[in-house]
Amino acid sequence: MEWEVVIGLEVHVQLATESKLFSGASTRFGAAPNTQACAIDLAMPGTLPVPNKEAFRHAVMFGLAMNAEIGRRSVFERKNYFYPDLPKGYQTTQLAEPIVGPGEIEIHLEDGSSRKVRLHHAHLEEDAGKSLHEDFHGMSGIDLNRAGTPLIEIVSEPDLRSAAEAVAYLKKLHSIVTYLGISDGDMSQGSMRCDANVSVRLKGEKELGTRTEIKNVNSFRFVERAIKVEAERQIDLLEDGGTVTQETRLYDADKNETRSMRSKEVANDYRYFPCPDLLPVELSEDYIEQLRGELPELPDAKSARFASEYGLSAYDADQLTQERVLADYFETVAGKSGEPKLAANWMMGELAALLNREEKSIDQSPVSAEQLAGLIARIVDGTISSKIAKQVFEAMANGEGDADTVIEQRGLKQVSDTGAIEQMIDEVIAGSAKQVENYRNADEAKRPKMMGYFVGQVMKASKGQANPQMINKILKDKLDALL
Amino acid sequence: MAVDKQTVEQLAELARIAISEETVDEVGKRLGNVLQLVDQLQSVHTEGVAPMAHPLDEVQVLRPDAVTEPDQREAFQELAPQAEQGLYLVPKVID
Questions:
Q1: Interface of A with B in 204-223 (CB under 8 A)
Q2: Which domain holds residue A228?
């Protein structure tokens, strides 16, 4: 039996506003508990919410980037449930008339193919606070700093067919929200959180299978693993003649398994109704068009431009535009060095390896774009060879200064002085009588290969600093003169 | 047509309110009356009428994104039954 996995994602993205969705309390991350929870966030009697205009601007920008319909009119509703980190007893959210309607984006897969994923809708809502369950004499500690922070919940259609596609979609969303500057997208701090609806069905079947919802998976890697392991669980269950129960499950990263979250609770009934404290929000056509004009260049457009303007391969252009900071870094290096292809090679080679090794992101790179451009310029003008350049790069990464400083201090300048190179070659030839004899007796066709030995010896003698093109030329002339 | 006992108990659980055994029937009857009123409303012909989100025919005013609320944690926590290390303490609930 061949099974097909069907996935839909609900992604919560924290918006990068200064203040909360309905109050003037700060949204800054990491403040002391409850110092950013005001009377409105605490649901004190007599308070009234007033929505944040910037949160709407962010949501509309997102909708425009997703080629989605924008709700000219959107309505807040109350989603009723009881939990200590939700002081009002309801979450103010949107249901029937959300700010962002249906849309569509293209995702790019590892094998180079791409596919469209439909957006069901995205709505504005407020985040809840945090509960701390450990060490309060059997009680829970509640921090309401996060309560009321604006979120957009982005709901996809069940269009994804594998864990890898789900990750590609998430990465695309991440890329879009960070390009727009509407969120820092930091999954480790909870700025982007993901719930996955997973079901399986026999290939060719039209009806969807019963789905389970995996809650709050907080890294790209865990999303991939959680979906894989949940799909396998459902397939095993069905192949053994069982049925899938519709339920919420939690992914346990340590055990790499999902388990049921709610055991005996009554089925959720959120009893939504329009929030009487808030009027419908209407946005004018002019305002939406103004925001459309303010959209930055988005990842797909930038990738296409990198390919045409800088002559990069589609793969390289795609890789370099996934993050806006990475793309900016590239443009600085390419612009300052005038060598876009070398810039791309260095970024995807040495720089990527360095960042990976030190577990740093591009904006924490120990080698700045200006420094890398300076290094590339010295390769191009022949001051150093590519091989020495790697040594200079490591030195820059260790904080030894820019390329010129490192080359100067370590004395790495390439030897391009004809006299000095000739002298080294003469010494090598004098000390390699046997190899010279072999060279002279060899077929003409085999000689170029035999040159390698001599080049290596000269390079060694120069500690890698002799100009390789010059060695090749002078060496060939001298050896051929001996024939 | 009173709301049956099981539904009343389920609603009470969702709303986290306690309803004593003796009052369940009475509450069921009263909720039934509310539903009767809803039935009456639903009999009104509303085809082609857009649902109303709010009784006031006005549009929401939005505020600029600025931090205007100072930290008043101390004042708020004086009202709370229990607080420790800046956190509000509540009976343990794990979902």
A1: none
A2: 3-288
